[in-house]
Specification:
mainly beta; Porin; twelve-stranded antiparallel beta barrel; 1 helix
Length: 335
């Protein structure tokens, strides 16, 4: 794989979640699109699975666009309860379909030997949540509702990003700061949400080893998410840790495939008057695969990547399947 194909493979922009899902989404899609993990509404704003091959690579100066089409289907153990929109529910099923629209400007500015980039992400999508039971509180477990359903199409909270990236031979690494800005369409008291109604930030570092001769790419990204308080519910989600990894190989000059995964773990418990279930610290791991194809539209290089991951080893959150379709291209960059 030559340098031209390397640039195409790395047109992807930074997010989470995540998240997110996020996505985040973030996730979380949060029920912004990741859909139900520990934390309020079972989700965080970093989009888990958003990073993968070439995670540590910052492309050359220019303006880049990326669309992350996110799908998440999950089910919570019927014996477990979930805090959602000031309510306590159980036997939860959730589904998220969202698009994360990313814009990144890799500036010509350099600092500490690296390049500097600024970006923004706007999630737009549809979330559907059903709950078999609603309780008045976890202390009494008195049933006050059954067969609850909620779905809506919404604009989530925008996420701002700043990244520094460095290169040395086959190694590429970067650091990224994300900030969730709580101005999205938050639906107070509802089960389905794409926005969080809270400030949040994520600090992460990513490393890639890429051999252009063999086409082998080994990448990983590690980060921590810090959450503010949701003033509408008096709920503060605890600090969250996430790590993602990927190993891929170029099969042709245009096609590559590999294995990917992530691990999520809540480091501190939830708090505030709205945290009726207490600390409710969550954990999950996911494994899956990815395939990417690079092509040209006119003279513009385009990269398309599909990711599918299945979660397991889950605690205090829903277990689901993540699907991501990422399409990215340079708008004004050296080709």
């Amino acid at each position: 794989m030559g340098r031209r194909e390397v640039k195409r493979t790395t047109l992807g922009l930074r997010r989470a979640a995540q998240a997110v899902a996020a996505a985040a989404i973030a996730a979380c899609l949060n029920l912004a699109p990741e859909a139900a993990k520990a934390a309020e509404n079972g989700t965080g704003f970093y989009l888990l699975g958003g990073r993968g091959p070439m995670a540590g690579f910052l492309p050359p100066p220019g303006i880049y666009f990326e669309s992350d089409t996110y799908s998440y289907d999950a089910k919570l153990d019927a014996r477990k309860s979930l805090p959602a929109g000031s309510r306590v529910v159980a036997n939860v099923r959730s589904q998220a379909r969202a698009d994360f629209l990313n814009g990144t400007w890799v500036t010509p500015w350099e600092a500490f030997g690296g390049n500097f980039a600024l970006g923004a992400v706007l999630p737009v999508g549809r979330v559907a949540v059903s709950a078999g039971v609603e309780f008045d509180s976890p202390r009494t477990n008195t049933v006050i509702g059954r067969s609850l359903r909620d779905k809506a199409t919404m604009v989530g909270d925008p996420v701002l990003s700043a990244t520094m990236g460095w290169h040395s031979g086959k190694f590429h690494w970067s650091t990224t700061a994300l900030v969730n800005v709580p101005v999205g369409d938050y639906r107070d008291g509802q089960l389905a949400n794409l926005a969080f109604h809270r400030w949040a930030s994520d600090l992460s570092g990513a490393l890639t080893w890429f051999d252009p001769e063999t086409g082998i790419d080994l990448s990983s990204a590690v980060g921590v998410t810090f959450n503010g308080i949701n003033s509408a519910t008096d709920y503060r989600t605890g600090t969250e840790f996430h790590v993602e990894w990927a190993a891929s190989k170029a099969l042709t000059s245009a096609l590559s495939a590999g294995v990917i995964g992530y691990h999520y773990q809540q480091l501190t418990g939830d708090s505030g008057a709205g945290a009726q279930l207490g600390a409710y610290k969550g954990r999950t791991t996911a494994l899956g695969g990815t395939i990417a194809y690079n092509f040209e539209v006119g003279k513009t290089p385009v990269s398309a990547r599909v990711k599918v991951l299945r979660e397991f080893s889950v605690e205090n959150r829903a277990r689901g399947t993540v699907g991501l379709l990422t399409v990215s291209l340079p708008l004004t960059a050296a080709r």
